[in-house]
């Protein structure tokens, strides 16, 4: 039998490989690609620099020149030791484990057991695994010392159980499946600074709450009660059990949290190989290697989406339609039912980042993190009215979903996914707007959207309203999906950060200009261990500290750009990157400096600040060794880390 460590490593290797499963059959070779390919020919040799410089002047000229966004700390060196098992931050800073898998959320939760012996009911009161997106919601009367920290629990590792996952190839024990469901979702925890200025969790608290894969939620928006949402257990199509695979997130201007459902297809199976329905196949739901990796269907029929003619609505045929949405959670109302907002469209949604215009019109940006998928934005029909919560809470049910096309000349277009327009018609398989939203990927294929190198987080510059997105990597670019100007490297192992500026800085505009902020990877002109220059496709344009595979991305209130990485630190190609990192970049000068290095095997994800920027929280997800177990030997735990400057100053300056 494999050791737990081996199971953990194999599981993460499989996750990495699975991020590579492309289900986008559309190469979308359009006039744009032809232009882009031509450009690539022209740019050969100095590809990265030229691509980054392209349109850069225009964008830089538009940016506000606050001149205050340069990183001011001493950079942290890369860590290459295979047993590196801590978090390193710059001199003068302290990082401290704050909230780990198994920590009590509800006051009656039992202590976490180092042998993972807590059962599923106990897990429901404790922090879930794999902390990812998160946000600090301050209390208005004491915003820098008191608030609610909301943290996603994206998925589960074999470490959840004492001896790992049992019977993944046979019938899973229901008790294990329940614990896995309970360890997903979101934690809301009240936190407060004590007299000594240390952040503490408040217990008990009327706000502390676990939302999980077992929490009942309401379906709202165009798909509420739609025929595509009905199952044998929910003939009304309005109620769903649980949210799954919540990765990055979003925050509304009215103070609610938007959990996003990313790799939800991992939980479903469709055993009928003849069934080629787009709403399953285009999302990677099938059998064989596309089957659910947790085999929940063997313990709970709801996760078997094979058509069952003996049951109403085909049994659970449509259950997968009920995932892939935005889940709005009001952290300040612990009694509120989470709401799945369907106007946002259905895909593997990494994030949902808001941009608010001066007149109250707003947009939400989302990446669909799979190889060759798209960047989307949702524009609510109504406007945000400051202070009018009753009005604002209905804004997310009506609006227009767009998908991005990045043209080779540095311009771009938001293409509307609207039924009846541009071929999104019944004749082409889109009977109504519900069908367009459930099959957003297929609708975007038809519109000729630009296939991207796995879009992860999106961040909006508070000074310029420019929008930045991480395209984490796509080592098969140039194969299934042709190279284009926005995704300019074949076999793209290191990823890039793209940015765009909406016309007139209006979040709702349908046209924009764009450039590549940077290409991650090896330094220009550097050589590998054999003294050979790195090939173009592995060479980046970073001015400063090296990294690969940007994933988490956020601006602080001053406008510094924070970049979190997620690469396989065992991959020989990552030799010069070391363990995963958090970096800080100046959007003006593009200088990049490494702020934090995490323990071996982890990814760095989730990022949030207090309003005064004197406290920073980040997540250490799936560390490999023992971090942060106090005895140094028990199983590793994903952990939220709190970071501050020893002199109490603003983080990053
Ligand atoms: Fe869950 Fe795309 O990261
Ligand atoms: Ca991510
Ligand atoms: Ca990632
Ligand atoms: Ca991850």
Let me know the number of strands: 29
Strand order of the largest sheet: 13-14-15-16-17-21-20-19-18
What is the overall pLDDT average?
91
Oligomer: single chain
Distance between the termini: 50 Å
List the uncertain runs: 29-66
Q: Which percent range fits the helix content?
A: 10-25%
Number of helices: 10
How would you classify the helix and strand content by structural class? alpha+beta
Query: Based on the structure given, which CATH architecture is correct?
Result: 6 Propeller
Largest sheet: 9 strands, antiparallel
Radius of gyration of CA atoms, rounded to a whole number: 23 Å
- The CATH class designation is Mainly Beta
Question: What's the number of domains?
Answer: 1
Bound molecules: MU-OXO-diiron, calcium ion
Which fold name corresponds to the CATH topology?
Neuraminidase
3D shape: globular
**Relevant CATH superfamily:** TolB, C-terminal domain
Strand content: 25-35%
Can you walk through the features of this model?
Strand 27 and strand 28 form a beta hairpin. The chain has ten helices and 29 strands. The relative contact order is 0.16. About 6% of the residues have low confidence. The protein has a nine-stranded antiparallel β-sheet, covered by helices on one side. The chain is 12% helix and 26% strand. The chain has 653 residues and is α+β, with helices and mostly antiparallel strands. The chain has a single domain, classed as Neuraminidase.
């Amino acid at each position: 039998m494999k050791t737990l460590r081996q199971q953990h490593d194999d599981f993460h290797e499989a996750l990495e490989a699975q991020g590579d499963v492309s289900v986008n059959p559309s190469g979308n070779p359009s006039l744009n690609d032809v232009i882009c390919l031509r450009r690539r020919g022209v740019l050969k040799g100095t590809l990265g620099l030229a691509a980054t410089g392209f349109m850069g002047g225009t964008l830089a000229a538009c940016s506000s020149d606050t001149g205050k966004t340069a990183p001011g700390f001493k950079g942290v060196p890369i860590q290459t030791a295979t047993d590196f098992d801590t978090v390193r931050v710059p001199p003068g800073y302290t990082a401290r484990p704050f909230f780990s898998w198994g920590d009590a959320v509800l006051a009656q939760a039992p202590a976490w057991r180092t042998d993972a012996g807590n059962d599923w009911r106990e897990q429901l009161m404790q922090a879930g695994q794999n902390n990812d997106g998160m946000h600090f919601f301050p209390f208005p009367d004491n915003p820098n010392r008191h608030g609610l920290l909301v943290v996603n629990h994206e998925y589960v590792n074999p470490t959840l159980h004492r001896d790992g996952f049992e019977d993944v190839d046979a019938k899973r024990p229901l008790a294990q499946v329940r614990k896995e469901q309970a360890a997903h979702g979101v934690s809301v925890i009240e936190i407060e600074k004590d007299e000594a200025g240390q952040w503490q969790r408040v217990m008990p608290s009327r706000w502390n709450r676990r939302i999980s894969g077992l929490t009942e939620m309401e379906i709202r928006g165009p798909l509420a009660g739609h025929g595509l949402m009905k199952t044998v257990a929910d003939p009304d199509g309005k109620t769903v059990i649980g949210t799954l695979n919540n990765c990055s997130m979003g925050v509304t201007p009215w103070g609610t949290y938007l959990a996003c459902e990313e790799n939800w297809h991992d939980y479903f199976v469709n055993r009928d190989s003849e069934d080629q329905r787009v709403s399953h196949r285009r999302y990677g739901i099938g059998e064989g290697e596309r089957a659910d990796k947790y085999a929940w269907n063997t313990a709970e029929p709801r996760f078997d989406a094979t058509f069952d003619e003996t049951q109403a609505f085909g049994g659970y045929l449509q259950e997968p339609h009920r995932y892939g949405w935005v889940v709005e959670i009001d952290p300040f109302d612990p009694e509120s039912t989470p709401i799945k907002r369907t106007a946002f469209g259905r895909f593997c949604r990494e994030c949902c980042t808001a941009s608010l215009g001066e007149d109250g019109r707003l947009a939400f940006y989302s990446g669909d993190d799979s190889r060759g998928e798209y960047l989307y934005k949702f524009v609510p029909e109504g406007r945000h009215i400051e202070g009018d919560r009753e009005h604002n809470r209905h804004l997310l049910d009506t609006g227009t979903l767009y998908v991005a096309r990045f043209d080779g000349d540095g311009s771009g277009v938001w293409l509307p996914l609207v039924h009846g327009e541009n071929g999104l018609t019944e004749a082409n398989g889109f009977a109504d707007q519900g069908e367009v939203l459930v099959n957003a990927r297929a609708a975007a294929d038809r519109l000729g959207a630009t296939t991207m190198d796995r879009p992860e987080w999106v961040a909006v510059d508070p000074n310029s309203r420019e929008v930045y997105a991480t395209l984490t990597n796509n080592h098969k670019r140039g194969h299934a999906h042709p190279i284009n100007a926005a995704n300019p490297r074949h076999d793209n192992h290191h990823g890039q950060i793209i940015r765009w500026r909406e016309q007139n800085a209006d979040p709702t505009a349908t046209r924009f200009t764009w450039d590549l902020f940077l290409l991650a990877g090896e330094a220009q002109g550097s050589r590998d261990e054999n003294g050979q220059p790195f090939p173009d496709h592995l060479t980046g344009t970073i001015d400063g500290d090296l990294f690969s595979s940007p994933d988490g991305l956020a601006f602080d209130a001053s406008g510094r750009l924070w970049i979190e990485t997620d690469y396989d630190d065992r991959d020989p190609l990552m030799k010069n990157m070391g363990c995963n990192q958090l970096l800080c970049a100046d959007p003006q000068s593009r200088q990049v400096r490494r702020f934090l290095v995490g323990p071996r095997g982890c990814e760095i994800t989730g990022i949030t600040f207090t309003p005064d920027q004197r406290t920073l929280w980040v997540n250490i997800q799936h560390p490999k060794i023992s971090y942060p177990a106090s005895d140094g030997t028990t199983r590793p735990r994903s952990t939220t880390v709190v970071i501050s400057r020893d002199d109490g100053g603003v983080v990053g300056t």
